[in-house]
Amino acid sequence: xxxxxxxxxxxxxxxxxxxxxxxxxxxxxxxxxxxxxxxxxxxxxxxxxxxxxxxxxxxxxxxxxxxxxxxxxxxxxxxxxxxxxxxxxxxxxxxxxxxxxxxxxxxxxxxxxxxxxxxxxxxxxxxxxxxxxxxxxxxxxxxxxxxxxxxxxxxxxxxxxxxxxxxxxxxxxxxxxx
Length: 178
Ligand SMILES: Cc1cc2nc3c(=O)[nH]c(=O)nc-3n(C[C@H](O)[C@H](O)[C@H](O)COP(=O)(O)O)c2cc1C
Fold this sequence. Notes:
By secondary structure, this protein is α/β, with parallel strands linked by helices. It has seven helices and six strands.
């Protein structure tokens, strides 16, 4: 495996964005898209490019409390589905446990409401900060994809996610990292 797209998702929107980004990245070769629990430590260690994304909760990365609130919301609202990732390890914990020290290309994304970032916050910024603290190299600015409240994704966002994945792949090629 060369590229790992790792996501957290409560209602399935970030999951869809992650799959679209994975399609955009496929010119890089082997791309695996999954929740953090879908990857072994060996797979993550072997990945030369790590693309990481989550929903924005309370201005940043989901916490156990906000993930539990999202699951409760999905149980109470028949229009919302709890995505499988909602019950797995949180991305916040997974990022905390990532090994440091090896040069590795990264890109971060989130889903959030389409309002000024000052109001909504952005999980992608928090993800990027954590990856950079591990000594990894950020190849593009963190990116947000927009939902209507808790979903669905706004029109055109899946296509934009695929194009963003393609751009990440392009930057990797330009820098000749693969
Ligand atoms: C507990 C909770 C807190 C949220 N906080 C924010 C927020 O601070 N800013 C924002 O833009 N969206 C916020 N949202 C909306 C989420 O960003 C939205 O549900 C998410 O992008 C949907 O992605 P998912 O389907 O992958 O979970 C929040 C949602 C929940 C459930």
